Amino acid sequence: MLGLEKKLTLYGFNNLTKSLSFNIYDICYAASEREKNDYIEYIDEQYNSERLTNILCKVAEFIGASILNISKQDYEPQGASVNILIAEGQLLPHEIDESCNQGKLNGKYMYSDTVHAHLDKSHITVHTFPEHHPDNAISTFRVDIDVSTCGKISPLNALDFLIGSFDSDIITIDYRVRGFTRDIHGKKYYIDHDITSIQDYIDDRTLRRYDAVDVNVYQANMFHTKMLIKDIELQNYLFNQDVYELPPRKRLDIINRLRREMIEIFSGMNIYDS
Predict the structure, then answer these.
(1) How confident is the model at residue 224 (pLDDT cuts 50, 70, 90)?
(2) Which of 21, 36, 197, 232 is deepest in the core (most CB within 10 A)?
(3) 150 included as an active-site residue
(4) 8 Å CB contact between 140 and 261
(5) Active-site residue among 122, 139, 154, 168?
(6) Mean pLDDT of 172-186
(7) Among 21, 81, 127, 193, which one carries the catalytic annotation?
(8) Ramachandran class of 2: left when φ > 0, alpha when ψ lies in -120 to 50, beta otherwise
(9) Is 168 marked active-site?
(10) Residues 49, 57, 123, 150: which is the catalytic one?
(11) What is the spatial distance between Cα 188 and Cα 167, in angstroms, rounded to a whole number?
(12) pLDDT digits 0-9 by tens, 21-64
């Protein structure tokens, strides 16, 4: 693609911005009001801002970035957010903004105490959205993640880790390269790596578990992949219930409900509305 097999010698800094954005959905069957509330409480505890911070710090490590600043927040009644400012090139201590905590929370470094930075902004953010409807036995948990980098580091290196860090039933991924950089002769380059599909950066063992669809706009360096889990093992979707306590007809009904919810979220349409 674009003849980038050979390593480019750039003029100045590589200021291409590579942005990876995706939504991850976890689906659960919780019939009673108590089960719904217990599921929301479980998700809120399982994916609180502290654990999300640890996940994002590992993402920074995977993509070879260093942490400048961490901010995190748990919300009432539910949900959490974490934002991490990351960087690539080294900065001297006097060049660091005094407001930056340099990845230090509660008196200790969440990552490396070596601070780096570059000519433009990079960040990793996550927001969580637990949800249930009072008249629907299906509860959902959505995670929105954005990883935006400049320079040589690529957010694609963290894809497998992020997918594996959550219970991922439906995944929607967008990847885009913005801006341009120049070689030493002044020629502009709008992308600095070969890519035909986001799926190329996902492990085959992960892909085998999903049905995946691509919608790519190569001329604009925009790539889109949607993934839907293939097999529903019912026990994994029941909250505080044993699958063997349910009669076969009830099991089939729940599986159908789960699959319909997943297909609608995957498609972005209310297909089964009566």
Answers:
(1) very high
(2) 36
(3) yes
(4) yes
(5) 122
(6) 85
(7) 127
(8) left
(9) no
(10) 150
(11) 41
(12) 989 999 999 888 888 888 888 888 889 999 999 999 998 888 88
